[in-house]
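Q: Give me the 3D complex with GCB.
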Amino acid sequence: MTGKKYKSFVFLLACFLLCLNVFSQNRKVIPYNSGWSFVKDSSNNLSSIVNLNKPWQKVRIPHTWNAYDVMDDTPGYYRGTGVYKNTIHLNDLSVGKRIFLQFEAAGQEAQLLINRQQIKDHKGGYTQFIAEIGPFLQKGKDNEVILIVTNKFNENLPPLSADFTFFGGLYRKIAIIETSETYFEDHNFGANGIYITTPKVDSSQAKVNVVAQIKNSSNQQKELKLRNAIYSREGIEISFSETRILLKQNETKRFEQALEVKNPRLWSPQSPNLYRLKTQLIDSDGNVLDEINNPLAFRWYFFNEDKVFLLNGKPLKLIGASRHQDFKNMGNAVPDDLQIEDVSLLKEMGGNFLRVAHYPQTKSVLEACDSLGIITSIEIPIVNEITESEEFTQNSLHMQQEMIRQYYNHPSVVIWGYMNEVLLRPKFNNNKERQKIYFENIRILAQKLENLTKKEDPSRFTMIAHHGNFNLYNQVGLNHISDIVGWNLYPGWYGGKIEDFGRQLDQIHKDLKEKPLLVTEYGADVDPRINVANPIRFDKSIEYGIAYHQGYIKDILSRPFVAGAMAWNLADFSSETREETMPHINNKGLLTLDRQAKDTYWLYRTRFNDKPIVKISNWINRATVSDTNFSVQSINVYSNLNKLELFVNDKTVEAATVNDNIANWKTTLLNGKNKVLVRGYSNGGQLFADSTTIVLNLLPASLKSYDFRKPLLMSFGDTRSYTDTLGYVWLPEKEFAFGSWGYVGGKALFRENAPRQKYGVDKNIIGTEEDPLYQTQRMGLNKLIFDVPRGTYHIEFLFAEFNDEQTKLLYNLTGNENQDEKWNLSENLFDIKINGKRVIRDLNVAKESGYFTALQKSITAKSKAKGLIIEFDAQKGEPLINAIKISKIK
Ligand code: GCB
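A: Here is the predicted complex, encoded as structure tokens.
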């Protein structure tokens, strides 16, 4: 969606949502996001917290205290307590009203205090809670509101561990709600008390059932009218139902009403026809005491005997992505409009499904899914493991119930989930008897959640997502509890080959024919700074990502029994403990953390959205070695047209056919800037085109003729090309050959000797943002030879030393922990000589900077007739180097 289109979509959506809830005379929803002050407090002692004399910081909601500390070099992030304070002034008009505070979420637990009195506790970081504050407010005074929020580890609260960051804070919106004495509510579950179902839908007629939970908080009996009305998108009332109801004093009761709509316009991804259902409570004088608006849509869905998903009677392959809720430099405190934009990006990509993973997300995301026709699943965050305690069980059940009741009326939701990969980290591995009990407790919890979910909402499907270990889930009994089993499959990433994916699908289908099969996750890390000519697993390159997704898409589409598949993930997301090429980030997103489209996104966009498009790959900064002033380069163009023509520097290159949405040319690019234009015609003859400039830096095989307008940059132990923060491209390492330049001797650590393919060390390198440059290295080299012209050069050596506490892969879904490479380095001490002159003496990288820490050494040197000969003399152990930058200064 273009910026303009997107803005008008957001505007329309905002108008629609406004219609939904604020136009009630008696229910006022007042945003309460400003005026907040915040202070961190780790004492966790109530009296010390509220008497804080610390300087309060002004903040605006949404707010998290972890936006930056998850990204810095120190391991961990603040998991403790934060205190928020504000005031509320009760004005005269509010007198006689019920007054509530509604928090859309607080990560992960919260206590609310009004005028120092504790009035509400809430557990769980991803669901809404509502507290009645009216009785605690004093008229004519600034009443103090304090929220004590903590994201400290709590063994009784999911999630316990997971591959995402558990941000703390008041990170979703807050509102003050005023109602009359009689109002709709289900506040024990943070919900508004209206539950809509559509028990029968077809294109000629739809039946609508509305359950309304009403509270009469007055001490008088109330005779009222309950009215439900359905409005078309144009705002026309098309059906209504009214009943007289009676509520005793202080009574809360549920009422039910049925409505009908003739010839409903059905809801689907192609035509997300939304209606509105208005529920009103009216007194005998015709005054509207309360009013709630909800979206309403008519659709029916089921899995047929072949386990194909059918929407409105037609097969629909569910294609999409999962989504986390955080954003670059914001943590999870992300304004709603940016979150809605994610749904637009998924829609634009051609997706029809969003797995809201691994926890419920802002209502705005679900509202956007309703409006744009994106089918969804939502789940609670029981990830990796459980605690076998009654409290953990109760918290999980309550969270599930909150989720169901809070998101019940979103027509886009068709699946409730409740567990993800709970057998990934089986506890008690050394005690099989004890482990059996643990597994049984997981099964019991799953069954309880299943029963509860079916009781709360029999109209939707249930789902658990497993990792690839079919037999283990089978043995524990988790393959037969939920309606759908989701599979998170990563062959070709954590282990195995891309081609294994199809075989794995066939096997699961064979072994579990009776269940619909969804691939709830698949993906590969893609760091958009990394390109490579010959992609291999774990190189984190765009090219490997493309090969992986191409392979998976083929396998998914060629198997009708795969009801759907969701790429992991729509966008990169924060996972503090990850230390790959972008530490603290999981790079499996099709979009970056700030939502720039990677090539993988374009692959999906061209495959699944029929609107014609031509999109040139993002690989626009390149460098290579060439003896001429040109080089033959591979250019990928993503498109859903059949044939494309390429023009480089205004000259036609031959046409290419598009295979699996990619047209590829091996074509000549010149040193410097290259104008690239690609165009093609749709079946209707309409022209579609894209253009870009590819900047190519050519380094001659003999540097004698290199003008050094750009520095020479090389990353050792590396076969990839890396674009740094300044836009410079670092060459893969190159071995010296006569008449040329490069390294002499040594071995590329982690590549040549690794027992499995592995790229570099998965460890955050402290003190740099260019981690990939430091994560690979050449050990034991003798020399570097650069046959540069006469002159004075600035040489920057980049070093980082590793020790043998090798990082285990965080998410090694192969279950085989022993395949990680081990190494044991002795102390490395070496000298560096340039043209015979010792310029660095006794360098011990580990001692000087610490392990896994970037160390740069800069030397200015004059070249001789043979250029620059840089010798590495080992004093102890082996010399090493990670990268080098050579610039000519004179
Ligand atoms: C999974 C997990 C997900 C991880 C993902 C990964 O299977 O369900 O939470 O983020 O793998 O990237 O490893």
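A quick observation: The CA atoms of residues 609 and 674 lie 30 Å apart.
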